[in-house]
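Checklist before submission:
- one chain only
- standard amino acids only
- sequence pasted in full

Submission:
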Amino acid sequence: MQNGFEEKKIKGFKPHPIAFLAYIISHESHHRGQILISLKQSGHLVSKKIQYGLWEWGSR
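Returned file contents:
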């Protein structure tokens, strides 16, 4: 036990679960950035509403 929390492991991922969560969030943001850059480079400007809407998981 460390700081009152049980030490948990994620199969195939060496650091602790909080590092895994940070990795998932940064990976997701990387792909969203790729989408927006691709659209911008191809001449399709995306409104601020749509840009912020990309972060609203599960809400439609």
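Reviewer check: The chain has a mean pLDDT of 83.
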